[in-house]
Amino acid sequence: MRLTLIFMLAFLLILSGCGGGSGEKKLIIFHAGSLSVPVKKLSEAFMEDNPGVRVLTEAAGSLHTARKITELGKPCDIMLSADHFVVSSMLIPDYASWNIRFATNEIVVAFRPESKYSPIFREDNWADILLRDDVIMGRADPDADPCGYRTVFAAKLAEDYYERPGLADSLLGKDTEYIRPKEVDLVALVSSGVIDYMFQYKSVAIQHGFSYLELPDEINLSSPLLTEHYTGVSYMIPGEAPGIRTEVRGDYISYSGTVPDRAPQKELALRFFEFMLSEEGRQIFRDCGQDPLMPAVADDLSAAPERLKKYLAAGTQ
Question: What's the CA gap between 292 and 255, in Å, rounded?
Fold first, then answer.
């Protein structure tokens, strides 16, 4: 009996040692799919600098990510969206108090060298090639992902830029079976040759080694100087209740984030956010093919945490 008790105590001690993590702090980050690579690198660097911290990340389309907080009540320490509109319209003021834009991007058409007609795919003929019957293209779901509704914006802007009535409907009506919930879901389809081309963020194309065609600034949503031009197009995304839709208007692409008011690890989350806005964090974004905003932009500077204000400018940019 005595030996049995000794073995049981020893077993319990081993279990408690193997738990490894009784004092471990977990930081939960919900983020846009197109941020998967930089968030992974940011998390690795942050954990190296903060022993005892484990960063848990979960990628999804930004609209779905916001609904995990607002509708499902899932615990989250940091929300990073591909569009500042998602945070400002869905989380503030009921679930978060501030919103900071930290990086930009642009819409491109990405492909492999083996994609049909890739040797002649150029700025002056890209739409005609995408519309060919033997070419398959993919795009993200505009009801779930900002890259999806930004593709809609780009198609409408292209129709105006090239003065081709009906171009947007032709592009958006083609190959609809290859619409996916988020832009990174398209990567495997292009890599495997299932589809030839995809509307994609430039950073994702760079991260995965794709060739890509840069579109004119009047189409690609990259320039803050063309914001007024971009606002001429819009899309109705699903609203807070079934059957209700909310208008989102074109804007230059800006990624933003916040720490929800009910974040379980609020102090740790602010430390991560500060690291992300620091020069080391900005360099990680550059290395991943994405330009950081310098300075970052707070929708409401007065509402931003004090420790972050040294990285910020007020208002939209």
Answer: 9
**In sequence order, what are the beta bridge partners of 247?**
236
- Note whether 79 and 138 are same-domain residues: no
**Helix, coil or strand: residue 163:** coil
- The whole domain housing 189 covers 107-236
My answer on whether 111 and 232 are in the same domain is yes
The pLDDT of residue 2 is above 70: no
Domain boundary among 236, 268, 285: 236
What's the rounded Cα separation, in Å, for the pair 57 and 54? 10
On whether the CB atoms of residues 71 and 238 are closer than 8 A, the answer is no
CB atoms within 10 A of CB 97: 16
The predicted-structure confidence for 118-133, as pLDDT tens digits, reads as follows: 999 999 999 999 999 9
DSSP 91-111: TTTTT-S--EEEEE--EEEEE
CA distances from 138 to 33, 189, 210, 219, 223 (A): 16, 8, 14, 18, 24
Choose one of 236, 263, 286: the last residue of a domain.
236
Q: What interhelical angle do 279-287 and 266-277 show, nearest 10?
A: 70
The whole-number pLDDT of residue 243 equals: 77
Domain assignment present for residue 1? The answer is no
Do residues 214 and 281 both lie within one domain? no
Q: Which two tokens stand for residue 68?
A: 């995990």
Burial of 305 (0-12, 13-18, 19+ CB in 10 A): middle
Residue type, 14: I
| CB atoms closer than 10 angstroms to residue 278 | 13
Residues with Cβ < 8 Å from 117, sequence gap 6 or more?
A: 129, 132, 135, 196
In a domain, 12, yes or no: no
